[in-house]
Amino acid sequence: MKTVLTDNSLCAYTLLDEASPEYIYKYIQSLAAAGVRYVELDFRTLMKLRELPRGIGYIFRLVDPMFLRLAELFDFDYILVTFADVRSKIKTSVPIMLELPVIDRYSRRVLQYSEQAMDGKVTAVRIRGSHPLMTNEEARAYVSGLKNEFPVPLDFCPMNDNRTALDSAMKFTAAGADSVTLTMGLTERYCSLEEYFFTLMSVYDTLPSELKISPLCSATVYHRYLFRNRNGDGIMHYMDILDHDIHFLQNADTGERVRMRMSLKDTEYLHRTFVTALEKMARDEEIPGDVFEDLNNAIRHYDTDFYNSELFNRKRRGLLN
């Protein structure tokens, strides 16, 4: 996947006062193992950590110029500065990521102005805010136009004002955006990292090799112990959504419910599988003669309607074919 992922949950949420530095450390490690390339931090997280986990990049959100000295204590890939703070007396040798709001038109002179107002080099631009609903072609044209305007890597942080955050994140990824910023956990403002993963799996039927669900599940566990807004397990939330969708499928043409059923072919396949397993057991196990004979009789007279009457009808909930 060309687009790398950034998580900003450690800036978007408020850490609990009793949040353990050990859990924060493991939380970041889990995000890295899941495939997140960068984690965005602010001074609140740094106040709790003596060191940062290796194997992942870091973006330091400069909430106030007074925290600039923290850049001397940690190895940051970027210092994120909003356009409103450009006029502050910011002097740093760390590469700067300039955050711009979503507007109708941009100018590359913004970079020149920003570098003149600060004593630092702008090496990346983030576009943060709510985008209008776009087609795939419009998203490609939008990303391509910004790349022509800004000769630096582009990060997109879509917001959820019009419920377009996930849609924008998926389309910017397909359009070849350099980076997309998402937020771990259930949130009303940003595109959820879990939702992004589940959409790739369930809608696009693919999950790039660098993205992994198992450590993402671990991150959800640590998430519940770190943040003040304990609003449920994101993984289970999206699994429930998928389960609901499966059980309430509709025909796109008629609008009627889709009946979930097993075909005759499936029934025969399961029957053969069961019989084969019984035959193997009878052959491999040391079974007394009379029991062996009963087992063979059971195999020969096996009731194939069992599947139809029990499994397929009474216990078929959740089977999608």
Q: Could you please describe the fold and organization of this structure?
A:
An eight-stranded parallel beta barrel has the order 1-2-3-4-5-6-7-8. The chain is elongated. Helix 5 crosses helix 6 and helix 10 runs antiparallel to helix 11. With 321 residues, the protein is an alpha/beta fold. The chain contains twelve helices and eight strands. Helices cover 41% and strands 13% of the residues.
Protein traits:
321 residues; alpha/beta; 8-stranded parallel barrel; elongated
Stretches with pLDDT under 50, minimum 5 residues: 310-321
Distance between the termini: 30 Å
Count of DSSP E strands?
Answer: 8
- Strand order within the widest sheet? 1-2-3-4-5-6-7-8
SSE string: EHHEHEEEHEHEHEHHHHHH
Structural class: alpha/beta
Please state the CA-atom Rg, rounded to the nearest Å.
Answer: 27 Å
Query: What general form does the structure show?
Result: elongated
